[in-house]
Amino acid sequence: MIDVRDAKNPKTVNFLPCPPNTRAHHLQTATHEKFGDLLLAVNGPSVWTMQVSQEAYFSGTSGDALAGQKFSSGLRVYDLAKPEAPREIAFLPLGGLGPHRIWYVGERYAYVSVHLPEFSDHILVIVDMKEPTKPEVAGKFWLPGMNKAAGETPTWPQGKRYALHHGLVAGNLIYSAWRDGGLAIVDVGDPAKPKMVSYRNWDPPFGGGTHSPLPLPDRDLLVVADEANFADCSKGLRYIWVFDVREPSNPVSIATLPVPDDADYCKKGGNFGPHNLWENRPGAFVSSRYIFATMHNAGVRVYDIKNPFQPREAGYFVPPNPARMFDPRPNRPQVIQSADCFVDKNGVMYVTDNNAGLYILQFEGR
Amino acid sequence: MTAVASHNITFLSHSDQGGRGDGVQVMVNKASPISATAFPTALP
């Protein structure tokens, strides 16, 4: 926990450790109408600590890559009445590799990508947060071929990873990114019975890794980032796509965001290209015009999609390379790998990195 | 701190997250940001 009441003088105030071999690599804070401020955190395998190769993790099923490893698997819920000292109030064990990402904005349900033992990889699990001390699984959705326990077999090529990475909800629809499995728009109006509305996969010819969705419901647009989960552009480039979703049953790609060209990032070392998008969380910076994206070794970028057919770059910040490495895997390049960006209502940006800590920046481009 | 490159974004500050600079995700809850992090090997 870092106190940033003074954004120019952040102060680290606390740290919550994880169980052995476990990483809380994704979390959500939100205000529950009855219980106040909550923190939801995933517990899953710390693939770096366990020296799981990037190639093995992103090819095929993650369950195979992590077979035999021991770690905590589940969803932890904390009371944030004292944000500097979160108090754990619940743990929902999920088995398998457990959760990877969460979408929760304080309403009844949390939408979590989870690997359950009976499935080949992460699927959508809808968690009922009516009683935050007793979170319960309310529904599941998966792509055809993922339910091993039901006898389903993969419908995708060997070496591809079909797994829910992350989904964001707008209205009754979840816009969900399934890594090499593409994009699914799913009706979750009845959490117990999610229904596919539409499905798109642009791999091949583009390379998969579909990672971060951002619905912009006031403009009937959807932005989707494909993760550059490999080094040195060795598998080509990954893109951020703009879709017209006026008709959710027929999403149409209308543009891609500009690829950074202010330096030769393919030769810089490390990964180059999209990772996370800023997700327009309630109470923070909400815009359907400015898109914030972390781009690994190209830092953080802001795009203006006032004209969604002609997106333009509106700002960027490339931090210096990290002074030291925390990534324990051998032979990792010591370069910036911007990972996530939170934007507050004043345009203050909080940008993380795999090794370089937290940068606090101000967007001046509006 | 000098950025390698920047346009329309200015630097305010930097935190090494108490010596655990391995951040993947960050949330800001009112005044306090909470960065998902941590290798067990970095635990105190």
Low-confidence spans of chain A: none
Number of helices of chain B: 0
- What class would the helix/strand composition of chain A place it in? mainly beta
Secondary-structure element order of chain A, as H and E? EEEEEHHEEEEEEEEEEEEEEEEEEEE
* Portion of residues within helices of chain B: under 10%
* Helical/strand content category of chain B: mainly beta
Secondary-structure element order of chain B, as H and E? Answer: EEEE
- Major β-sheet annotation of chain A: 5 strands, antiparallel
| Total helical segments of chain A | 2
Query: Main interface pair?
Result: A-B, 80 and 43 residues
The rounded Rg of chain A comes to 19 Å
Describe the global form of chain A: globular
Oligomeric status: heterodimer
Alpha-carbon distance between the two ends of chain A: 30 Å
In which range does the helix fraction of chain A lie? under 10%
**End-to-end separation of chain B:** 28 Å
Low-confidence stretches of chain B: 35-44
Describe the structure.
The complex is a heterodimer of chains A (366) and B (44). Chain A is mostly beta strands. In chain A, the strands form seven sheets. In chain A, strands 3, 4, 5, 6 and 7 form a five-stranded antiparallel beta sheet that branches. In chain A, strands 8-9-10-11 form a four-stranded antiparallel beta sheet, with no helix packed on it. In chain A, strand 13 and strand 14 form a beta hairpin. The longest helix of chain A is centred in the first third of the chain and has 5 residues. The mean pLDDT of chain A is 94. Helices cover 2% and strands 40% of the residues of chain A. With 44 residues, chain B is mainly β. Helix content of chain B is 0%, strand content 45%. Chain B has no helices and four strands. Chain B has a two-stranded antiparallel ribbon with strand order 3-4. The termini of chain B are far apart. The C terminus of chain B is likely disordered. Chains A and B meet through strand 1, strand 3, strand 4, strand 5 and strand 22 of A and strand 1, strand 2, strand 3 and strand 4 of B.
